[in-house]
Amino acid sequence: MIGTMDVLFWQLVHLLLRDGYRIAHLSERGDEIWLESGHWRRPTLVRLVRADFDWSRSLRLDIEYTWQLIRQMNGRKIGKGGRVVNVYVMAYPPVDDWEFLVSKPLPLPGAADGGFETLLIHSGNADEMLLRLGDLIGVSLRPQPLAEEADPFAVAERLKHEVLTEWRRQREEERRLFDYGKPVFTKLLIIVQVAMFLVLEWSGGSTNPDVLIHYGAKFNPLIEAGEWWRFLTPMVLHIGLLHLLTNTFALYYLGMTVERLYGSLRFLVIYITAGFFGTLASFLFTPSLSAGASGAIFGLFGALLYFGTVYRHLFFRTMGMNVVSLIVINLLFGLLVPGIDNAGHIGGLIGGFLAAGAVHLPKHAAWGRQFRALAAAVLLAAAGLWVGFR
């Protein structure tokens, strides 16, 4: 019976992987596996444990430990509509009373319609519990019956080997996601904006309004007069050394990450589009003279947010909370400190998100999603231009 339940454990892992789940954690002994769904709107974490607890006290302690562990995540893994399903696969249940431990789901912070569900699958209730588990996570779970002549321990070992191979493949795939492109344009853009700063200083000063206007800063009257290139040229101009240093460091760190994720050509499209949207928003909502790469840099934040919609769990497992926190802090800073063009920042953020959606991630075409993002970007830009020039 122990070998049969070992087979069932690894079959469940296989079925979930086939349905689009990814392995988030695998213990050294292979008796505990966390899997996360790819559904970003209603995420689900499934914890599978192959264990045989003789007494319900051990089961209760493990449930409480796992529940507290999930609570400490503050909802980052599951969101408001998600759930955690804690599944024990046992040959036999504990010898004393245990049903009350799994009779009701435990609450989770922030999970309005989700929760922490525990199921105990053993040799006497496997069919019933598999149906219930399938209903909870929306997956059809129909393990192949074990042939009579098959050695269950050998079959379980084979299935385990296949899972470990798939886990290594997933980790390698995730590593490659963050190392797709080489940061060529990031370095080039830094060189260009530093060179333009030196040109401004040589020509009379980077804080001189006349010099800034001459070299292409955003100046609404001249844009209204037909100088359309001023939607793009402000990206390489900076007002003062502090402005240059701030944006250069931001471009270096964000640009390196985004260009590695998206590749150089996609990165350039995202950056220029975000810069255009940032200047357009500034043109619509701010009459003052302005310049800087801030809108384009916020567009890089937008590109990272878009990456998070495609790889939600990977995003929050790596850089997600830092990205969201930096966006919020910078927008609040822009609201509290006078002279900061927050409209340009928000416009760049939106433009970068839509541009990232239009070009999508390398080797991951999603034509419907890309078309919708492109259409939204075109319509939003057209509407902004129509409002600005009417």
UniProtKB/TrEMBL annotation:
Name of the protein: Rhomboid protease GluP
Domain Peptidase S54 rhomboid per the UniProt entry, residue ranges: 226-358
Keywords: Hydrolase, Membrane, Protease, Transmembrane, Transmembrane helix
Membrane topology reported for the UniProt record: Multi-pass membrane protein
EC number: 3.4.21.105
A Pfam entry, by short name: Rhomboid
Listed transmembrane segments: 235-255, 267-285, 291-307, 319-337, 373-389
InterPro entries: Peptidase_S54_rhomboid_dom (IPR022764), Rhomboid-like_sf (IPR035952), Rhomboid_protease_S54 (IPR050925)
Protein's organism: Geobacillus icigianus
SUPFAM superfamilies named among the record's database cross-references: Rhomboid-like
Domain of life: Bacteria
GO biological process: proteolysis
GO molecular function, one term: peptidase activity
Entry's localization field: Membrane
Lineage of the organism: Bacteria, Bacillati, Bacillota, Bacilli, Bacillales
Family: Belongs to the peptidase S54 family.
Main location: membrane
